């Protein structure tokens, strides 16, 4: 079939988690321990993440979406509030804020990087409405100008909640210092996803990072039904304490409702085990990205990688090729199907939110040319640590052949 190569039976997906025997042993150990829900592995995972990104508090949770919702709740967002997000992102970014009753304001992006810029935020600000929070998205693993976004948010007194679902392991230069995404130097809260296509696979999982003690307490409370267990905060004086004035050992209160967004020890044991290999995952992804860049360079400007953010060392969650489909005889669906027919997966990240029927019905038609251009050109090619160099050769050969460039 196709190029006659002998790899047709092995499908190369656009992403694949890397699970080894240590991962399996770590999960089996939790199963044998009998402690399946949130316990010691969750605490160890949170400490290890905090160490890794250099932040005081990490709240592990059920998914990246849960993390974004927790961050929105902890920031006090609700009906009447507004959150600015890029139009080009996963549905989860918008859904998490909408779930609080807040509105989202969809901003444009740089068509070359896919990232929202401070100028995109400024252009989207409504005249007569306060924007309470902004949520830049570190698309593909590249940081969306954290210091610039923090400054733009400060001007309008908005909280920064960074959607770093793609960017666990990314670092950037900040005033001459290398800092990790998640360190919360430029965001009140940063949210990671550990969905299996992401940098660490936990089955499902996520985390919120913060340097703010009060936000950390709120995040933990919202993760656990909103349950208040701090005696000093108890309001039910007559039922909270025994005759000696000691808090009743079973007692809890509800002040603001929360969710069950806890993550289990099973998931965190896997996350902890995976974390040991994070540096090798990143190194491998970077090497594969370099190889893609090198092999695709002769096909510019018809095919080019996303533009690189200066001063950043991305973890590279995705490898996105930007393809000028007006310059080739095939449309994108033919390319996706053509690649699939030779055993290669590809994907489009993402359909812009402002083109979604829900948002058109809710806010009316909107034109965001940067997001539309990026969307019209983007194609995510296979990228995961276990890929061989030869797989990149095969993807580039097949892609350029399907595009009619060779
Ligand atoms: C940009 C972005 N934000 C948020 C999420 C949500 O993460 P999760 O799938 O862990 O809920 C994702 C995952 O797909 C994502 O890509």
The CATH class of the largest domain is Alpha Beta
Residue runs with pLDDT of under 50 for 5 or more positions: 1-8
The CATH topology of the largest domain is given as Aspartate Aminotransferase, domain 2
Q: Using the alpha-carbon principal axes, give the shape.
A: globular
Helix content: 25-40%
User: How can the largest sheet be summarized?
Assistant: 7 strands, mixed
- Into how many domains do the coordinates divide? 2
Report the CATH superfamily of the largest domain: Type I PLP-dependent aspartate aminotransferase-like (Major domain)
Class from secondary-structure proportions = alpha/beta
Tell me the β content: 5-15%
Q: Which architecture of the largest domain would the CATH scheme give at its second level?
A: 3-Layer(aba) Sandwich
Overall pLDDT = 96
């Amino acid at each position: 079939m196709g190029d006659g190569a002998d790899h047709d039976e092995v499908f190369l997906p656009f992403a694949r988690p890397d699970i080894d025997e240590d991962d399996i042993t770590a999960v089996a150990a939790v199963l044998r321990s009998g402690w399946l829900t949130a316990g010691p592995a969750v605490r160890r995972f949170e400490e290890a993440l905090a160490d890794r990104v250099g932040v005081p508090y990490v709240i592990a949770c059920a998914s990246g979406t849960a993390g974004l919702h927790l961050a929105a709740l902890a920031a006090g967002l609700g009906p009447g509030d507004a959150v600015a997000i890029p139009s080009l992102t996963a549905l989860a970014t918008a859904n998490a804020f909408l779930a609080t009753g807040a509105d989202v304001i969809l901003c444009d992006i740089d068509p070359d990087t896919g990232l929202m810029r401070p100028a995109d935020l400024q252009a989207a600000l409504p005249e007569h409405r306060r924007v309470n929070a902004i949520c830049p998205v570190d698309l593909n693993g590249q940081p969306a100008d954290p210091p610039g976004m923090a400054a733009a948010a400060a001007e309008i007194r908005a909280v920064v909640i960074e959607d770093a679902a793609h960017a666990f392991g990314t670092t950037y230069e900040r005033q001459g210092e290398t800092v990790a995404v998640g360190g919360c130097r430029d965001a009140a809260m940063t949210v990671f996803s550990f969905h299996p296509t992401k940098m660490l696979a936990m089955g499902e999982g996520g985390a919120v990072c913060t340097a703010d003690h009060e936000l950390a307490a709120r995040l933990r409370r919202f993760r656990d039904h909103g349950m208040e267990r701090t005696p000093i905060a108890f309001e039910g004086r007559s039922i909270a304490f025994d005759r000696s004035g000691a808090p009743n050992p079973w007692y809890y209160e509800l002040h603001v409702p929360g969710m069950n967004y806890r993550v289990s020890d099973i998931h965190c044991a896997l996350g902890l085990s995976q974390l040991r290999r994070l540096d090798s995952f990143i190194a491998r992804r970077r090497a594969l990205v370099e190889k893609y860049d090198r092999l695709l360079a002769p096909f510019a400007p018809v095919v080019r990688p996303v533009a690189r953010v200066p001063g950043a060392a991305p973890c590279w969650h995705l490898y996105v090729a930007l393809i000028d489909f007006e310059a080739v005889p095939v449309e994108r669906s033919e390319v996706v199907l053509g690649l699939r027919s030779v055993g290669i997966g590809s994907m489009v990240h993402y359909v812009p939110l402002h083109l979604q029927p829900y948002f058109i019905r809710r806010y009316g038609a909107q034109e965001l040319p940067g997001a539309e251009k990026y969307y019209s050109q983007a194609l995510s090619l296979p990228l995961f640590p276990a890929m061989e160099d030869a797989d990149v050769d095969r993807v580039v050969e097949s892609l350029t052949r399907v595009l009619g460039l060779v």
